[in-house]
Structure formats: C-alpha cells, structure tokens
Design a protein that fits this description.
It is built from two helices and no strands. With 63 residues, it is mainly alpha-helical. The protein is elongated and about 70 Å long.
Length: 63
C-alpha cells in the first residue's frame, strides 16, 4: 500500500504529460507547422536517388 499511492500519482502525471504533448502536436498541425525531423536531402536529390534505384532494378533484371 505504501507504493500504491506514489505509483498512482506517477501514472496520473504521465497521462497528463501525454495528453499535453498530443494536444500541442494537434495544435501545431492545425496551424500548418511542419512536424517531425527536417529532411537531409533536397527534392532534386531524392529524385536522383529514385531514378538510380529504378535503373539498378532494370539492369538487375537483364540477363
């Protein structure tokens, strides 16, 4: 019983923390802010990577 009360308080605090984080993310998303990590590649670099992967697949299929 001695550990039950502190465990309940910790659980409640954790639930509040999760709730606040989720509401902050939802608010930021509604404001149109970009969420998550910034991309390390540009759009042009991604297009080059995709093109090279596709050409490798084609060359891998050839006998």
């Amino acid at each position: 019983m001695i550990l039950t009360m502190p465990a309940a308080v910790v659980e409640m605090e954790r639930d509040l923390l999760v709730e606040h984080a989720q509401s902050a993310l939802a608010r930021a998303k509604n404001e149109g802010k970009m969420l998550g990590r910034l991309s390390s590649t540009s759009i042009e670099q991604r297009a080059e990577i995709i093109a090279s992967m596709r050409s490798e697949r084609v060359s891998a299929r050839l006998p």
